[in-house]
Amino acid sequence: MTDEDPPAGYLSREIIRIHPRRIINWGIDPDVPGMSARDATV
Hints:
Number of helices: 0
Number of domains: 1
Distance between the termini: 20 Å
Largest sheet: 2 strands, antiparallel
Strand content: 15-25%
Number of strands: 2
Order of helices and strands: EE
């Protein structure tokens, strides 16, 4: 996508969008120790 001006002059006009299908984390939630995973929903 290149239809918007960048927020700063040293940045590119091109944007990369990432759409994860699955999210995996390690130790982020203190109530769930260790690794946890979930499917990303739209």
